[in-house]
Every structure is written in C-alpha cells, then in structure tokens.
Amino acid sequence: MADPGGGAVCNGTLHNQSASDCHRGNCWKNGVVKESQQNGNSNFYKPFVESFEEAPLHVMVFTYLGYGIGTLFGYLRDFLRNSGIEKCNAAVEREEQKDFVPLYQNFENFYTRNLYMRIRDNWNRPICSAPGAVFDVMERVTDDYNWTFRFTGRIIKDVINMGSYNFLGLAAKYDESMRTVKEVLETYGLGVGSTRQEMGTLDKHKELEDLVAKFLNVEAAMVFGMGFATNSMNIPALVGKGCLILSDELNHASLVLGARLSGATIRIFKHNNMQSLEKLLRDAVIYGQPRTRRAWKKILILVEGIYSMEGSIVRLPDIVALKKKYKAYLYIDEAHSIGSVGPTGRGVVEFFGIDPRDIDVLMGTFTKSFGAAGGYLAGRKDLVDYLRTHSHSAAYATSMSPPVAEQIIRVMKLIMGLDGTTKGLQRVQQLAKNTRYFRQRLSQMGFIVYGNEESPVVPLLLYMPAKVAAFARHLLERKIGVVVVGFPATPLAEARARFCVSAAHTREMLDTVLEALDEMGDLLDVKYSRNRKSARPELYDEMSFELED
Amino acid sequence: MATVAEQWVLVEMVQALYEAPAYHLILEGILILWIIRLLFSKTYKLQERSDLTLKEKEELIEEWQPEPLVPPVSKDHPALNYNIVSGPPSHNIVVNGKECINFASFNFLGLLDNPRLKAAALASLKKYGVGTCGPRGFYGTFDVHLDLEDRLAKFMKTEEAIIYSYGFATIASAIPAYSKRGDIVFVDKAACFAIQKGLQASRSDIKLFNHNDMDDLERLLKEQEIEDQKNPRKARVTRRFIIVEGLYMNTGTVCPLPELVKLKYKYKARIFLEESLSFGVLGEHGRGVTEHFGINIDDIDLISANMENSLASIGGFCCGRSFVIDHQRLSGQGYCFSASLPPLLAAAAIEALNIMEENPGIFAVLKEKCKRIHKALQGLQQYVNRELPDVQAGFRKGRRTRDPIANIHWIIEKAREFQKKHLFLLY
Predict the structure, then answer these.
(1) Which end of chain B is less crowded, N or C, counting CB atoms within 10 A of the terminal residue's CB?
(2) Taking every annotated instance into account, which residue ranges of this chain make up the domain Aminotransferase class I/classII large (chain A) (predicted)?
(3) What is the SS3 assignment for A131?
(4) pTM to 2 decimal places
C-alpha cells in the first residue's frame, strides 16, 4: 500500500504529504486511510547507498606516470615545432598582427596542444539522426593525427547510444504523438524576436508555466530559453553584495558563473558533506561577514539534484533540516534529476518525499529528460513575480521558441498522465529498472562505479589517459557510443567514462553493452574494484560447504 | 682528565671575575635579575579574547533573521501585467486580444512567418525530433550544426564560425574566453547588457569611452600607452581589446568602424564586433557593418551576432579566423557546458541564409523603408522625447520605454492629427 514505486498508477497528480492542503485542488482522496496511501511519502526508510571507491595505489602511480610521460613528450614536440624541425599544423596569427600581444599564453594551451589533441577524436563526434536509444554516427578519419578531420561520407548506423542525456527516451524521430509540435510550428513559426518583458510572452509560454507549476506542485513557475542562462542570469537577481552563497564543490559551471556574477561572497563546502556545510553555516550565522562582523543579509545554499560527473544524489533531507535550523535559503538545480528520479519522475524532491514548499527555489532544465531546450525556475508566487520583474533574462534575452515550448508541454502531459495513458509513468519506471540493473551488473563485473545506486548517470572510472582513448575507440568499433571525460572536467587522475541510462534502452541493448564492457574491462584491465561480487549466486547461497559423503 | 679540564675552566672563570671592572659586573647582575623577574611575572594580554560559549552561539543562531529571499514587488509593476501575444509574433500581431501592427519585434527581414523556413524546420523536426540531449562535445553535434557553421562562415567570408544555442550567451561567453584578469578592455559606454555581463565574468580592467567618440577612445589608448612605457614587462603580456557594436541596441547608431581599424593598428588592440542588430540589415548583401563601410573582414578579430533578429531563429554565432574561433570550442562556457541548438532552429537558420543569398534586393528595400519611416518621424521630433539618429539604421528601439507598441500607437495618433503619411515596415 505504501509503496509508491511498485507499479501504482498516479492519475497525473502528486498526492501531497500534508492532507490539510487539499483545497488547492490537486489532492485526491479516495475514502481510505490517508497516511499509508500517499505517494511520495517516505514513511519507510529507503537506504541511501553511494560509493566512491578509491583505486589501488599502483593505478594512481601509473596514471601520474602516464601524464608525466605525456608532458615530457609535449615539451619535446613543442621544441621540435618551435625550432622548425616539425611542421606545425595549428592555426597561426595573421602576419599584420604579429607584433600584437599574443592572444593566448603558450602555457595555457600546452595541455590542449599536446595531450588533448592526441585523443581528440573521442569528442565532438557528429551524428546524423535523432539521439534516441540508437543513432547514426558520421564516420570521420584524420590524416594528420587529429589536427584536422575529414568525413568519409559513410555513416555508422545503429550505434547504441550511451552518451546522450536521453533519460526518458523521448528524443526520437517524429511520430504521431508529436503532431501538436508540428501544428504549433506551422502556426507560430520558430523565432520570437523579442524579450519576455516586451513582445515575447506568447500564450504558449503562459500555458507552459502553469503546467510546470502543476507538475512540480508549487505555486508558480517561469521558463527561460536556455538552461545555462537560467542559472547565470537569475542567481544575480536573487542575491547580491552582502549575501553569502554556500555552494557545493562540484557544482556546474553555470551555477559557479551565476554565483560569481552576483557579487556575493562564495564559500565552498565539500561535496555532499553535511558536516562541512553545517560548520560553514554555523560560522556564517555566528560570526557574520568577515572583518565587519555584520550579519549576512541572506544565505543561499546552491546544490544540484544529481551531479553529472559523479552520479551522486544530493542528501536533500539533511540539507532541508539544516536550512530550517539556520534559516538559510535553498536553491536546487535539478538539471539531471527532473523527470528521471522519483516514483513519478518529479525529481529529487519526490525521491526523498520532501514537501516542495520546503525548497525555496527549484530550478531545472528541459534539455535532458524532456528532449527539448530551456530551463525553468519555480517556487512561491512572490519569488516568481520578483523574477518576472527583475530577472536579467526576462529583460534582455529572447524567450523560448514556440515549438520547443509545445514539445515540453506535450512531454509533461505524458509524464503526468494527463493524456489519459500511463505511458509516461511506464517510462519513468523502466528507467529506474534499467538503472538498477545496469549499475548492479557493472559492480558485479568489478568496475569502480561512482555515485548513488539510483542515479541514471553512471560514471565508470578509467584513470589512465591512454585507456580513456582506447575505451572510447574500441567501443565505437563495436557500435556503442560512450562519452569519456578527462581533465579539466574531472580531477586530473580520475578520468572516467560516463554512461547515461535511458528508458528507451531495452534489456537486449543493455546486455550487449554490458558484454562489450566486460570484454573491454578484461582487455584494458580496468576492473579495479576490490569489492567484486561473484556473478554466481549459487556459490554464496550455499548453506554449508562440507563435502557430502 | 675531565675533572682537571673542568677545574681549569673554573679557575679561569673565577680569575676573570676578579679581574673584571666593577661596572661590568653590576650591569650583568642587573640584567640577570631583570630576566628572572620577567620569567616569573604573569603573561600580559593586550585585550580580553572573547570566545563565545556554546550557549551564546545557540542564542545567536536563534536570533538571526535573514532578509526575505525576495523583496515584495508591487502589484502594478508593468512587467507583471505583461502583454500576452496569442498567435504568431509576425507583422500583424494579436496582443491582449487586440490586433496591432508589430513595430516591436526584431523581425527585420520579415522572415518570422516565412513558409520556406517553416518547411525546412518541419523537415528537420521529422528527422531529428526537437532536442539534442547533449552538449556539443558529447554527441550533441549534428550535421545540421556543422552545415550551419559552414554556411555562416562562407556568407561572412571568414574562415570559421561557431554556433551557440542562445543569443545572449554568445557574446557573454566569447568575451571571457579571451580576456582574463589583468587584460584591458575598451568598451563603449552604450554597450548592451550581454556585453556588460561578459565583461563582468571576465574580470578584466574595463575602460569606458563616450559613445561613438573616437577622440575619447584615442585619449584612453594614449594614456594606456604611457602606462605601458612605465612597465614594459607587464605590457608585453596584457592583451588589449576594443569591444564595439555594429548597431547599438541602446541608441540605434552605427559605430565608426574605419576609424576604429586605424586605431587598432596604431595602438595594437584587437577589435571584437558585436553585430546582433546589423547582421542582415547593413551592407549591400547583409553582411553587416564591415560590408557597409567596405572594410576587410580579416581586420576584425571576432564578429559575434545573434540569429534572433534577421535570421528569425534562435541562437547566436561568432565568426572570424580559425586562430581566434577555435579557442572557443574548449573555453567558451556557453558552448561547452550547455546543450547544443535544437536542429530545427538550425535548419531554419540555414534556410533563412538561403533566402538572404538568393534575393539580396531585400536589404535595399529595408533601407528604403527605414529612410521613409525616419523622414516621417522626423516631423514629429517634437513629440519624441529622444533624439532620433539620422543614420539609415532606423528602427526605434525602446529600451527606456518598456512599451514600444504603446509608444508607436501614441505617435501614430498624434501624427494622424497632423495628417502626416505613414508607411509601415510591411513586407
């Protein structure tokens, strides 16, 4: 009865924790005991399992050694290029501007020229189909060791897509369900040509904002044309000089940029570490601003729902408790978690069963689970009103394109069940199943996988730069597309491959990928985990191992 | 043996004591007594250190009241009662239920409701869906994007172009990619908001010069040169940039580009040109202010524009030489950390470029119409409380008045009173 994830069908609305609030019109009572029936209420304890296993020592030594050798060769090649022995393939400054101050410091580009350039073919791979569960990659070859690429014209078809953020599998070719998008495109056109505060607010935007507010169970919402810009242009509107921002170590570049542009003081707490955050909060409230000792005007905590490079989920109940105790404000960026976690896909707030009114600012993007583009900010009505008037984006930046807005409306209705089917909910549940299966099999095989058990972002640690390149190239040959990340997006020694599980992946596709990963792991020797669980349960299900006589 | 040596030393010491002068002994005695006193006296604190007790800390935490997250906004703030547009934002626009003629959207070439664009976008929608689900580095690069970049580079006659998925983010990401802390940027005082945000993010030294005033800029550059001579080592590593807009959004004037290029070579600063409003408007073929003045495009280091005005799509692009543009592929924040442009918008932009290339006559038509409206509005100068620029880039931008359509309506009514002729920017 109290199990929200076990195939229960919600009729498109989120049953709120506080039964007294049903006059808002969203809660449905069906004549039975309320407490045990409410979805999203985590009366039962859900184990929060996150692991960030450390690699054995020899791996770290070899990783640094690898980088060291690469650097030495880099110096050698730079010397050869500068002295003219080797031909330089990089673009150069104009003749007329040779006596200007150089545009780039030589050292800044050292890493790019010598280390990144060697393995550059694993990134920016162009595709020529919709980024669904399988896609078509354009084949490209290089004649001069990755300085330039040339397209052969061939297309590698049906590559399994483990790289795109397609959590609910909604990024696909046109089919009949996208009919409304087509109609909106034909009526409204594409561009808007104006900002929100001038002529850019279409009725589509209003419809979308109302729907987003309903989806998240908050009072109001506002949408913007780009997810990155949502953060970088609205955080300065909320905090300014004399305020304090406490931001997680591993926050996304848009959050960091928004915090910097606001002019507030920024303090960083260790990733997902509640003791570190509490210490910072206590010190801030007790001692006030540095040197003047005046009280801070506001304290804003910036966290993300799911961190894209680690796959970890924020410890939301702890943060909400802390925020209430110290009267701080919470801004949560649900770029990856909206639509992908939670029993009905409403994000990390539902995952933990927390009342959305406890979070001050809910932010998210529509790029990942909704297969569109743009971002939103939701919360109380006075917050959204203030943003409508004071946000930089509303005054200076174009509003969202109408067909994109219609796509989001369509998808949101699908997830909420407002189109009358349970297809949306099935996708959310399929994603959860796929995630659990994939992560379980990977850790059984012996790979070091970071992050929370329930997060659909799965980073698999590779550590050594050469293995990173080999991994991506071999897998592309086997028609599996993966994303590998290295420095500077991750710490220097922790290069990784990052998989994004999708609801559109079938069990067969996942099995193909897992088999290929198994072989890759043995070939490249990346199975570093010391917690290998045996894949054969019959061995540890045995009650006794005595010889039978 | 040891005791003998000791004794010998002791004897020496005692002898020295007898032979020392009296004042020396007295001085040393006083010093020794002083040291003993200092050693045994209590330590002397400068001020009372107040370590808070736990109870006091808890009280402070209880007492502290932060400001509300957002200050209250009055109910009749104009932005709260925004105009809702139902239907497409084309030339005849339905605002709040009323039909109006649209003088407020940036639809310079009238391509917002062009059927060819819609067809191209539809074809792209059928093939790719809507979103790209990833940044450019991680399978978010579609062949449409590469096509658009190629076409833009060819159209502007530069080596390379790079696309961003949002117009505002284009210049706001391009500036911090090149100009860092310690570099010097000369900016016009009337620069648009996106440029200001880009400068703020770059943390460089900003020097403002009066709007379109080349003498003021030259004065600043000369001052900088004098500074450089005082510290040549530092001058060798600080980069200098001049950032101007082709057509200023805040005032509607065109920048004097030939003088700027002269200043560039004289004082060795690089020019970044922001052509959001002049791309597709100025110039014989719509290539912007460089074509308008007939300047070699290689003289400008970076041209940044957004596709939301003339190209009737969404997004922005930067173009220039590969040496300059390629750097943004790894260090442009809005490029690396953000999802790529939805392919249907890119396909529409390509189609718009096709239209621009096929009939270059529309730019002359636009120029003609601007001149006519300008002349018509000149007569009403007394009623317009801002000076109208008399360059041909005429479209009235109302940043200071938040309601351009209301303004135009008011002017048209006033003009009807005086029976002036009005010609609309119809296409």
Answers:
(1) N
(2) 157-517
(3) coil
(4) 0.83
Q: With an 8 Å Cβ cutoff, is B328 touching chain A?
A: no
Q: What b/e string do you get for A469-506 counting C-beta neighbours within 10 Å, with b at 16 or more?
A: bbbbebbbeeebbbbbbbeeebeebbbbbbbbbbbbbe
Tell me the shortest Cα–Cα distance from A32 to chain B, in angstroms.
39
In a domain, A9, yes or no: no
Number of Cβ within a 10 Å radius of residue B106:
27
Query: What is the ipTM metric for this complex?
Result: 0.85
Q: What is the CATH number of the domain that holds A476?
A: 3.90.1150.10
- Are A396 and B313 a contacting pair at CB < 8 A? no
Count CB atoms within 10 A of the CB of residue A355: 15
User: What end-to-end distance do the CA atoms of chain A give, in Å?
Assistant: 48
* A136-194 residue pLDDT tens: 999 989 888 888 888 988 999 899 999 889 899 888 878 888 888 999 988 888 888 78
Interchain pair A130, B129: CB under 8 A: yes
In a domain, A335, yes or no: yes
Domain boundary among A393, A416, A439: A416
CB within 8 Å: B118 and A252 = no
Domain of residue A97, residue span: 50-161+423-529
| Closest CA in chain B for residue A230 | B169
Those residues with Cβ within 8 angstroms of residue B86's Cβ, 6 or more apart along the chain or in another chain: A202, A203, B94, B97
Question: Does residue A465 share a domain with residue A383?
Answer: no
Instruction: Find residues 213-272 of chain B whose CB sits inside 8 Å of chain A.
Output: 235-240, 265, 268-270
pLDDT tens for B244-280 read: 998 888 888 889 999 999 999 999 999 999 998 889 8
Among A416, A451, A476, give the residue marking a domain's end: A416
- From A481, which residue of chain B is nearest by alpha-carbon distance? B139
- Beta carbons of B89 and A233 less than 8 Å apart: no
What does the pLDDT read at residue B110?
83
Q: Which residues of A touch B238 (CB under 8 A)?
A: 101
Tell whether A481 and A404 lie within a shared domain: no
- Report the amino acid identity of residue B269: A
pLDDT of residue B64: 85
The per-residue pLDDT for B46 is 63
The answer to whether residue B402 neighbours chain A at the CB level (below 8 Å) is yes
Render pLDDT for B222-236 as a digit per residue (tens, 0 to 9). Answer: 999 999 899 888 888
**Under DSSP, is residue A313 helix (H, G, I), strand (E, B) or coil?**
strand
Model confidence at A20, pLDDT cuts 50, 70, 90, reads very low
